[in-house]
Amino acid sequence: MILTGAARVAGVMGWPVAHSRSPRLHGYWLDHCGVDGAYVPFAVAPDDLARALDALPALGVAGVNLTVPHKEAALGRMASLSETARRIGAVNTVIVAEDGSLAGDNTDAFGFIENLRAGAPDWRAEAGPAVVLGAGGAARAVAVALQDTGAPEIRIVNRTPARAERLASDLGAPLVARPWDDLDRALADARLLVNATTLGMTGGPAPVIDLAPLPAGAVVNDIVYVPRVTALLAAAAGRGLATVDGLGMLLHQARPGFRAWFGVDPEVTPELRAFVEHDLDA
Ligand code: NAP
Asked: Comparing 8-106 with 109-248, is the CATH topology the same?
Protein backbone atom coordinates (compact mmCIF):
# COMPACT_ATOMS: atom_id res chain seq x y z
CA MET A 1 0.00 0.00 0.00
CA ILE A 2 1.40 3.38 -0.97
CA LEU A 3 0.36 6.19 1.37
CA THR A 4 -0.65 9.64 0.22
CA GLY A 5 -0.39 12.88 2.18
CA ALA A 6 -4.05 12.46 3.11
CA ALA A 7 -3.50 9.07 4.81
CA ARG A 8 -5.36 8.49 8.08
CA VAL A 9 -3.10 7.39 10.95
CA ALA A 10 -3.95 5.25 13.97
CA GLY A 11 -1.94 2.91 16.17
CA VAL A 12 -1.47 1.09 19.44
CA MET A 13 0.14 2.45 22.61
CA GLY A 14 1.74 -0.03 24.98
CA TRP A 15 4.87 -0.54 27.11
CA PRO A 16 6.35 -2.67 25.75
CA VAL A 17 4.48 -2.72 22.45
CA ALA A 18 6.65 -4.93 20.25
CA HIS A 19 4.59 -8.05 21.09
CA SER A 20 1.32 -6.47 19.91
CA ARG A 21 -0.48 -8.26 17.06
CA SER A 22 -2.60 -5.19 16.33
CA PRO A 23 -0.32 -3.61 13.68
CA ARG A 24 -0.34 -6.86 11.72
CA LEU A 25 -4.11 -7.23 12.05
CA HIS A 26 -4.98 -3.65 11.10
CA GLY A 27 -2.31 -3.68 8.39
CA TYR A 28 -4.04 -6.70 6.83
CA TRP A 29 -7.37 -4.88 6.78
CA LEU A 30 -5.87 -1.64 5.46
CA ASP A 31 -4.33 -3.60 2.62
CA HIS A 32 -7.41 -5.71 1.86
CA CYS A 33 -9.83 -2.80 2.09
CA GLY A 34 -7.58 -0.54 -0.01
CA VAL A 35 -7.57 2.18 2.66
CA ASP A 36 -5.18 5.12 2.44
CA GLY A 37 -4.06 4.77 6.05
CA ALA A 38 -1.45 3.44 8.46
CA TYR A 39 -1.60 1.72 11.86
CA VAL A 40 1.63 1.91 13.82
CA PRO A 41 3.02 0.80 17.21
CA PHE A 42 3.71 3.57 19.74
CA ALA A 43 6.02 2.50 22.58
CA VAL A 44 4.77 4.82 25.33
CA ALA A 45 6.19 4.53 28.85
CA PRO A 46 3.66 4.81 31.68
CA ASP A 47 4.95 8.24 32.73
CA ASP A 48 4.47 9.52 29.18
CA LEU A 49 0.91 8.30 28.65
CA ALA A 50 -0.83 11.58 29.46
CA ARG A 51 1.46 13.60 27.17
CA ALA A 52 1.17 11.03 24.36
CA LEU A 53 -2.64 10.98 24.51
CA ASP A 54 -2.85 14.77 24.70
CA ALA A 55 -0.66 15.02 21.57
CA LEU A 56 -2.96 12.90 19.37
CA PRO A 57 -5.24 15.73 18.18
CA ALA A 58 -2.30 18.03 17.37
CA LEU A 59 -0.70 15.26 15.33
CA GLY A 60 -3.92 14.55 13.46
CA VAL A 61 -3.94 10.95 14.63
CA ALA A 62 -7.42 9.41 14.26
CA GLY A 63 -7.11 7.32 17.43
CA VAL A 64 -5.32 4.48 19.15
CA ASN A 65 -5.74 1.16 20.82
CA LEU A 66 -4.34 0.89 24.32
CA THR A 67 -2.71 -2.21 25.71
CA VAL A 68 -0.87 -3.14 28.91
CA PRO A 69 -0.26 -1.15 31.11
CA HIS A 70 -2.36 1.79 29.88
CA LYS A 71 -5.98 0.55 29.80
CA GLU A 72 -6.97 1.67 33.29
CA ALA A 73 -4.62 4.65 33.52
CA ALA A 74 -6.23 6.23 30.44
CA LEU A 75 -9.70 6.37 31.97
CA GLY A 76 -9.09 9.76 33.56
CA ARG A 77 -7.65 11.31 30.35
CA MET A 78 -10.80 10.80 28.28
CA ALA A 79 -13.21 13.69 27.66
CA SER A 80 -15.97 11.11 27.32
CA LEU A 81 -16.32 7.42 28.07
CA SER A 82 -18.68 4.87 26.56
CA GLU A 83 -20.99 3.14 28.99
CA THR A 84 -19.17 -0.15 28.26
CA ALA A 85 -15.74 1.31 29.06
CA ARG A 86 -17.10 2.74 32.28
CA ARG A 87 -18.58 -0.61 33.35
CA ILE A 88 -15.44 -2.56 32.42
CA GLY A 89 -13.28 0.09 34.06
CA ALA A 90 -10.75 0.21 31.23
CA VAL A 91 -10.23 1.84 27.82
CA ASN A 92 -8.81 -0.13 24.90
CA THR A 93 -9.93 2.12 22.04
CA VAL A 94 -9.49 5.91 21.83
CA ILE A 95 -11.20 7.93 19.12
CA VAL A 96 -10.15 11.52 18.44
CA ALA A 97 -13.38 13.43 17.79
CA GLU A 98 -13.78 16.26 15.24
CA ASP A 99 -13.27 18.84 17.97
CA GLY A 100 -10.04 17.14 19.10
CA SER A 101 -11.48 15.65 22.27
CA LEU A 102 -10.72 12.04 23.22
CA ALA A 103 -13.53 9.48 23.43
CA GLY A 104 -12.70 6.24 25.28
CA ASP A 105 -14.35 2.92 24.50
CA ASN A 106 -13.76 -0.73 25.37
CA THR A 107 -14.37 -3.23 22.59
CA ASP A 108 -13.38 -6.45 24.42
CA ALA A 109 -17.01 -7.19 25.36
CA PHE A 110 -18.05 -6.74 21.73
CA GLY A 111 -15.18 -8.97 20.58
CA PHE A 112 -16.08 -11.66 23.06
CA ILE A 113 -19.76 -11.87 22.16
CA GLU A 114 -19.21 -11.62 18.39
CA ASN A 115 -16.72 -14.48 18.58
CA LEU A 116 -19.01 -16.58 20.76
CA ARG A 117 -21.97 -16.07 18.43
CA ALA A 118 -19.85 -16.84 15.36
CA GLY A 119 -18.30 -19.95 16.92
CA ALA A 120 -21.42 -21.32 18.63
CA PRO A 121 -24.40 -20.08 16.58
CA ASP A 122 -26.83 -22.30 18.49
CA TRP A 123 -25.92 -20.85 21.91
CA ARG A 124 -28.71 -18.77 23.44
CA ALA A 125 -27.95 -16.59 26.47
CA GLU A 126 -31.39 -17.05 27.95
CA ALA A 127 -31.13 -20.87 27.81
CA GLY A 128 -29.34 -21.06 31.17
CA PRO A 129 -26.58 -19.89 33.53
CA ALA A 130 -23.09 -18.96 32.38
CA VAL A 131 -19.96 -19.69 34.42
CA VAL A 132 -16.99 -17.33 34.08
CA LEU A 133 -13.63 -18.45 35.49
CA GLY A 134 -11.58 -15.42 36.55
CA ALA A 135 -12.19 -11.94 37.87
CA GLY A 136 -9.44 -9.90 36.18
CA GLY A 137 -9.74 -7.37 33.36
CA ALA A 138 -10.77 -9.89 30.71
CA ALA A 139 -13.36 -11.54 32.97
CA ARG A 140 -14.86 -8.11 33.58
CA ALA A 141 -15.33 -7.57 29.83
CA VAL A 142 -16.80 -11.08 29.42
CA ALA A 143 -19.20 -10.47 32.32
CA VAL A 144 -20.35 -7.14 30.84
CA ALA A 145 -20.99 -8.79 27.48
CA LEU A 146 -22.97 -11.63 29.06
CA GLN A 147 -24.92 -9.21 31.26
CA ASP A 148 -26.01 -7.39 28.08
CA THR A 149 -27.17 -10.62 26.42
CA GLY A 150 -29.75 -11.35 29.11
CA ALA A 151 -28.14 -14.48 30.58
CA PRO A 152 -30.32 -15.45 33.58
CA GLU A 153 -27.34 -15.95 35.90
CA ILE A 154 -23.62 -15.27 35.52
CA ARG A 155 -21.52 -17.19 38.03
CA ILE A 156 -18.10 -15.68 38.68
CA VAL A 157 -15.66 -18.27 39.98
CA ASN A 158 -12.19 -17.04 40.91
CA ARG A 159 -9.17 -18.34 42.81
CA THR A 160 -9.27 -15.23 45.00
CA PRO A 161 -12.92 -15.11 46.14
CA ALA A 162 -12.82 -11.44 47.17
CA ARG A 163 -12.15 -10.39 43.55
CA ALA A 164 -15.14 -12.46 42.32
CA GLU A 165 -17.34 -10.86 44.97
CA ARG A 166 -16.14 -7.40 44.01
CA LEU A 167 -16.84 -7.99 40.32
CA ALA A 168 -20.33 -9.31 41.11
CA SER A 169 -21.06 -6.36 43.35
CA ASP A 170 -19.66 -3.80 40.84
CA LEU A 171 -21.78 -5.05 37.93
CA GLY A 172 -24.80 -6.25 39.90
CA ALA A 173 -27.45 -8.81 38.92
CA PRO A 174 -27.45 -11.36 37.44
CA LEU A 175 -23.79 -11.79 38.48
CA VAL A 176 -23.11 -13.94 41.54
CA ALA A 177 -19.79 -15.03 43.03
CA ARG A 178 -19.38 -18.77 43.54
CA PRO A 179 -16.48 -20.52 45.36
CA TRP A 180 -13.82 -22.25 43.26
CA ASP A 181 -14.12 -25.44 45.33
CA ASP A 182 -17.84 -25.59 44.50
CA LEU A 183 -17.27 -25.46 40.73
CA ASP A 184 -18.98 -28.82 40.15
CA ARG A 185 -22.29 -27.43 41.40
CA ALA A 186 -21.83 -24.18 39.47
CA LEU A 187 -21.35 -26.19 36.26
CA ALA A 188 -24.21 -28.64 36.82
CA ASP A 189 -26.91 -26.68 34.94
CA ALA A 190 -24.70 -24.22 33.04
CA ARG A 191 -25.08 -23.62 29.30
CA LEU A 192 -21.75 -21.82 28.93
CA LEU A 193 -18.31 -22.04 30.55
CA VAL A 194 -15.78 -19.29 29.79
CA ASN A 195 -12.17 -19.46 30.90
CA ALA A 196 -11.07 -15.86 31.44
CA THR A 197 -8.09 -16.71 33.65
CA THR A 198 -4.50 -16.96 32.47
CA LEU A 199 -4.62 -20.72 33.10
CA GLY A 200 -3.87 -22.73 29.97
CA MET A 201 -1.51 -20.21 28.36
CA THR A 202 1.56 -21.74 26.73
CA GLY A 203 4.27 -22.15 29.35
CA GLY A 204 1.88 -21.82 32.30
CA PRO A 205 -0.26 -24.21 34.32
CA ALA A 206 -3.45 -25.63 32.80
CA PRO A 207 -6.75 -25.41 34.67
CA VAL A 208 -7.59 -28.67 36.43
CA ILE A 209 -11.30 -28.72 35.82
CA ASP A 210 -13.64 -31.68 35.65
CA LEU A 211 -16.08 -30.96 32.84
CA ALA A 212 -18.23 -34.00 33.64
CA PRO A 213 -20.91 -31.97 35.50
CA LEU A 214 -21.56 -29.74 32.46
CA PRO A 215 -24.79 -30.70 30.67
CA ALA A 216 -24.58 -32.03 27.10
CA GLY A 217 -25.22 -29.06 24.81
CA ALA A 218 -23.17 -26.65 26.91
CA VAL A 219 -20.56 -24.51 25.15
CA VAL A 220 -16.97 -24.12 26.39
CA ASN A 221 -15.18 -20.90 25.36
CA ASP A 222 -11.52 -20.35 26.27
CA ILE A 223 -10.40 -16.78 25.67
CA VAL A 224 -6.76 -17.83 25.98
CA TYR A 225 -5.53 -17.99 22.36
CA VAL A 226 -1.92 -19.15 22.74
CA PRO A 227 -2.22 -22.08 22.20
CA ARG A 228 -5.39 -21.97 20.11
CA VAL A 229 -6.52 -25.40 21.30
CA THR A 230 -6.02 -25.21 25.05
CA ALA A 231 -6.17 -28.23 27.36
CA LEU A 232 -9.64 -27.07 28.44
CA LEU A 233 -10.92 -26.93 24.85
CA ALA A 234 -9.38 -30.32 24.10
CA ALA A 235 -11.12 -31.82 27.13
CA ALA A 236 -14.44 -30.22 26.15
CA ALA A 237 -14.17 -31.53 22.59
CA GLY A 238 -13.33 -34.96 24.03
CA ARG A 239 -16.62 -34.82 25.91
CA GLY A 240 -18.48 -33.88 22.73
CA LEU A 241 -19.19 -30.30 23.85
CA ALA A 242 -19.19 -27.35 21.46
CA THR A 243 -15.98 -25.30 21.77
CA VAL A 244 -14.98 -21.75 20.87
CA ASP A 245 -11.37 -20.57 20.94
CA GLY A 246 -10.09 -17.13 21.93
CA LEU A 247 -8.47 -15.93 18.71
CA GLY A 248 -11.73 -14.65 17.24
CA MET A 249 -12.24 -12.39 20.27
CA LEU A 250 -8.91 -10.73 19.52
CA LEU A 251 -9.91 -10.23 15.88
CA HIS A 252 -13.47 -9.01 16.49
CA GLN A 253 -12.50 -6.55 19.24
CA ALA A 254 -10.41 -4.68 16.67
CA ARG A 255 -13.35 -4.01 14.31
CA PRO A 256 -15.00 -0.98 16.02
CA GLY A 257 -11.72 0.96 16.17
CA PHE A 258 -10.92 0.27 12.52
CA ARG A 259 -14.41 1.41 11.54
CA ALA A 260 -14.14 4.62 13.57
CA TRP A 261 -10.65 5.56 12.34
CA PHE A 262 -10.75 4.42 8.72
CA GLY A 263 -14.47 4.47 7.87
CA VAL A 264 -14.75 0.83 6.83
CA ASP A 265 -16.30 -2.07 8.79
CA PRO A 266 -13.71 -4.82 8.30
CA GLU A 267 -14.51 -8.52 8.17
CA VAL A 268 -13.13 -11.40 10.21
CA THR A 269 -12.54 -14.02 7.53
CA PRO A 270 -10.87 -17.46 7.58
CA GLU A 271 -8.01 -15.87 5.59
CA LEU A 272 -7.48 -13.25 8.30
CA ARG A 273 -7.52 -15.95 10.97
CA ALA A 274 -4.91 -17.94 9.03
CA PHE A 275 -2.78 -14.80 8.60
CA VAL A 276 -2.76 -14.08 12.35
CA GLU A 277 -2.35 -17.77 13.25
CA HIS A 278 0.74 -17.90 11.07
CA ASP A 279 2.19 -15.03 13.14
CA LEU A 280 1.26 -16.69 16.45
CA ASP A 281 2.83 -19.97 15.33
CA ALA A 282 6.02 -18.15 14.39
P1 NAP B 1 -5.55 -10.56 34.83
O2 NAP B 1 -6.31 -9.28 34.97
O3 NAP B 1 -4.14 -10.64 35.29
O4 NAP B 1 -6.40 -11.72 35.58
C5 NAP B 1 -5.87 -13.02 35.68
C6 NAP B 1 -6.94 -13.96 36.18
O7 NAP B 1 -6.42 -15.30 36.15
C8 NAP B 1 -7.38 -13.70 37.63
O9 NAP B 1 -8.74 -14.02 37.77
C10 NAP B 1 -6.49 -14.69 38.39
O11 NAP B 1 -7.04 -15.07 39.64
C12 NAP B 1 -6.51 -15.87 37.45
N13 NAP B 1 -5.39 -16.78 37.69
C14 NAP B 1 -4.09 -16.54 37.44
N15 NAP B 1 -3.34 -17.62 37.79
C16 NAP B 1 -4.21 -18.53 38.32
C17 NAP B 1 -4.05 -19.83 38.86
N18 NAP B 1 -2.82 -20.40 38.96
N19 NAP B 1 -5.14 -20.49 39.28
C20 NAP B 1 -6.37 -19.92 39.19
N21 NAP B 1 -6.59 -18.69 38.68
C22 NAP B 1 -5.52 -18.00 38.25
O23 NAP B 1 -5.50 -11.02 33.30
P24 NAP B 1 -6.56 -10.65 32.15
O25 NAP B 1 -6.13 -9.41 31.47
O26 NAP B 1 -7.91 -10.72 32.73
O27 NAP B 1 -6.33 -11.85 31.09
C28 NAP B 1 -6.75 -13.16 31.38
C29 NAP B 1 -6.54 -14.03 30.14
O30 NAP B 1 -7.41 -13.58 29.10
C31 NAP B 1 -5.13 -13.98 29.56
O32 NAP B 1 -4.76 -15.29 29.19
C33 NAP B 1 -5.26 -13.12 28.33
O34 NAP B 1 -4.33 -13.46 27.32
C35 NAP B 1 -6.67 -13.48 27.88
N36 NAP B 1 -7.28 -12.44 27.06
C37 NAP B 1 -7.70 -12.78 25.83
C38 NAP B 1 -8.29 -11.83 25.02
C39 NAP B 1 -8.73 -12.18 23.64
O40 NAP B 1 -8.94 -11.27 22.83
N41 NAP B 1 -8.89 -13.47 23.33
C42 NAP B 1 -8.48 -10.51 25.49
C43 NAP B 1 -8.06 -10.21 26.80
C44 NAP B 1 -7.45 -11.19 27.58
P45 NAP B 1 -6.70 -14.24 40.96
O46 NAP B 1 -7.67 -13.09 41.00
O47 NAP B 1 -6.93 -15.22 42.05
O48 NAP B 1 -5.27 -13.79 40.87
From this structure: yes
Q: Tell me, using a 6 A CB cutoff, whether residue 136 lines ligand 1.
A: yes
CATH of domain 109-248: 3.40.50.720
Query: Which residue is catalytic, options 71, 87, 155, 191?
Result: 71
**Axis crossing angle, helix 137-149 with helix 108-119, rounded to the nearest 10:** 60
Checking if the pLDDT of 1 tops 80, the result is no
> Residue 279 — pLDDT band, cuts 50, 70, 90?
confident
pTM of the model: 0.97
132-163 per-position pLDDT tens digit: 999 999 999 999 999 999 999 999 999 999 99
Q: Where are the domains of the chain?
A: 8-106, 109-248
Is 174 near ligand 1, meaning CB less than 6 Å away?
no
* Those residues with Cβ within 8 angstroms of residue 47's Cβ, 6 or more apart along the chain or in another chain: none
CATH code of the region 8-106:
3.40.50.10860
| 71 part of the active site | yes
Q: Is 199 in the pocket of ligand 1 (CB under 6 A)?
A: yes
CA 185 vs. chain centroid, Å, equals 27
Q: 224 CA distance to ligand 1 centroid (A)?
A: 9
